[in-house]
Amino acid sequence: MDDVQKLKLKMLIEELEKIEGRGTELISYYIPAGYDLAKLLDHLSYEYSTAQNIKDKTTRQHVSEALAKIINYLKKFKKIPDKGLIIFCGNVGKDKTDIRMWVIEPPEPLRIRLYRCDSKFVLDPLKKLLEDKDVYGLIVLDRGSMAIGLLKGKDIIVLESRDSWVPSKHHKGGQSAVRFQRIIEQETHNWLKYIGEKAREYFDKYKDNLRGIIVGGPGPLKEEFVEGDYLPYYLKQKIIAVVDTGYSDEYGLRELVERAKDVLEKTSLIREKKLLEKFFYYLAKDPDMVVYGYEDTKKALEMGAVEVLLVSEDFDKEKLKELIELAEQMGTKVEIISKKTPEGEQFSNFKIGGILRFKINT
Fold first, then answer.
1. Which residues, given as ranges, of the chain have pLDDT below 50?
2. Are 21 and 351 in contact (CB under 8 A)?
3. Contact 91/62 with Cβ under 8 angstroms?
4. Residue 257's pLDDT is what?
C-alpha cells in the first residue's frame, strides 16, 4: 500500500469517526477473503428480518434501509473479492433520512469476520490494516552504553537505552592489572549477554515481520557481539549489516539507520530521506527544478511538470484531496512527509512542494 492509498484510508477513517447514529443504526461489516457469498446474503437477510422487531420506529427504518442497501450491492457480485470487503452503512442525516454506504477492498487479505450494528462505526480493525507490518531490529552498543530499537515504516522506536555496569579500563588501586583485566572481560561478557537477552525479548514479539537486524557501535565490541553466542541462531541469521556509528545511545539508533541506508533503501523512511535530500539539493543549487507553496505547486501539477509531489503530514486535508486527484491524472508520484526526521521537520516549513520533471516559469 503506497502513501496515497494510506492517506485516503486515513481520511476516510477520520470522516467515519465523526459520524454518530441515532441509536444502534450504523452497520459495520468486515467480510474475510474467500467467504461464501450465499452464506453472507443469508446472514444479511436474517438480520433484515430481525431488524423488524426494533421498537423505535426511526431506528427500525434506518437499519432496514441500510441492510437493504448492502444486500442490493452484494447481489451484483459473483463472489467476494480475493482480499475480502469492508462495508460501512447507515444514516448520516441529522433531521432527515440519508443512508450512505462506504465499501473498501482491504489492502491485504482480511482474516476476520465481524458484523456490528451500533451508534458508531467499528474502525479499529481497519486502523490495524494501516499499520506498517515490516520492521527492522536496531542495536547499537559499546562498553559504556547500548540502545535497542525498531525501524517501523518511518518511525524509529526506542525500546531500551541504558548505560552499562562494565568498569572503565582505568586501573583501580589495590588490584593487580591481570585480575582487574579479568573482571573487565567477565563484566563485558555479562553486558553482551544482557544485550542479547533483551534483544531476543523485544524482537521475538515481531519475529513474523522482522525483515532484518542492523548492529552498530563506535568500536570493535559490536563484532564480538555479532560473532559470539549472544543472540539466538534464528536472530543471528537476520543480521543484514554491521556498521560503525559514533554513538551507542538513542541518537546512535538514528545514526545507525543513516549509515545503513544502502541496505534499507527500499524502506519508506530511507526513500523519504533521499527525496528530501534531492529537494533541498535542487533548492540550493538549481531552484528551477523544484516548486513549493500551494498555488505554485498546483499550477505545476496542472502543467504535468511535477515528478514527485511532496506533502507534509500536517498539510490541509481538503486541499490535499484536490492535489492528489491532479497528481493521479498526471502520473505524479505522491510522498507524504513525516515530521519525525530532521529533514521532515525542515520540510514542514514548506508544507507542500515538488521535484520537477522539467523547468517551468511559475
1. none
2. no
3. yes
4. 95
